[in-house]
Amino acid sequence: MKANTEAIRLSSPNVPVSTALPAGTSAPDFALRSTPDQTVRLSEFRGRPVVLAFYPADWSPVCGDQMALYNEMLSEFQNLGAELLGISVDGAWCHTAFSRDRKLHFPLLADFEPKGAVARLYGVYREADGTTERALFVVNAAGAIHWSYVSPVGVNPGADGILSALEELQNNLEPK
Amino acid sequence: MNREPRSSIPRSKLTLPVANRDHIEGPIDAPVALLEYGDYECPACGQAYPIVKAIQKRMGNRLCFAFRNFPLTNMHPFAEHAAEAAEAAGAQGRFWEMHDRLFENQNALADESLAQYAAGLGLDARRLIKEIQAGAYIERVREDFRSGARGGVNGTPTFFLNGVRFEDGPDALLAAILNPD
Q1: Contact by Cβ (8 Å): B106, B114
Q2: Catalytic: which of A63, A118, A121, A139?
Q3: Active site residue A63
Q4: Are the Cβ atoms of B73 and A76 closer than 8 angstroms?
Q5: Which of A5, B22, B67, B78 could form a disulfide with B109 if both were Cys (CB 3.0 to 4.6 A apart)?
Q6: Cβ <8 Å between B154 and A69
Q7: Within its chain, how far is the Cα of A54 from the centroid?
Q8: What gap in Å lies between CA A85 and CA A164, rounded to an integer?
Q9: Average pLDDT, stretch B109-127?
Q10: SS3 call for B69
Q11: Closest Cβ opposite residue B150 in set A69, A103, A163
């Protein structure tokens, strides 16, 4: 499947939002702001795995724990060759403040305008709340989704599933 | 630094205390096994500390308590060295004394304080600080952390009761131990 390189522009309101994109699907490309003057594009990371961590909001306690945990796990992710990107509908200035407060060492992307467009592409936008699901995607070096997982919004999904997926990629194994 | 090589934690035992590797209080084959993943600078761990003490007192030899490090070092700038200080004290045979000292002084965990606590416990404080500065226990602390991340530890404190992650707060631990369902 060919990656969609114009994800944001092409995103249609008809994209189904009830389910997260499953393993085997091409990961839709996107470009989102990581700071007020910097943009990160998923396809820039082609050639190595990327972890996309969608979370509902900066500052809420569980997200804080989840992002704090991943922050501590960065060297583990990097040892497995992977990049980590956090994504929520918060704006870039909000992300900047949150990131500084929590001393995060990975980018937080602002799925802010049009709101939740990337989350919709991945099937993890929560229409009723106006936020994203707490969802994880591990994208392989070729840009396909190797593993995805949606956690209950109030539950920190931890890092175990991500590590297992990255280890499978490193060992060229299929997802369990 | 002459350290005993320590075995890593087998996947099957991630959430149970491991003999000869973990710091434990109580017999390794006690009927109840309680494992804590904690951070010496974490306020919630500080609140859990007296609760664990009370449980240990109540249970005596029927409990094996083990502690593994899970420092959130970006959030808690002193947590890593504090964890290493406990390990360094352990190398001098006084892990639990340092562990207690750290939880009882969560607001004073800079290196100078660590040296003071070591001296107060009759340890070789210079050796302890030297080992910390040389990073002698970084790998050990990291292995604890990694095992936690693999075992479902998402924050601190996280307790495992007989190998199963305990989902309720520490306040509910004693009741769960006394009335297993």
Answers
A1: no
A2: A63
A3: yes
A4: no
A5: B78
A6: yes
A7: 5
A8: 18
A9: 98
A10: strand
A11: A163
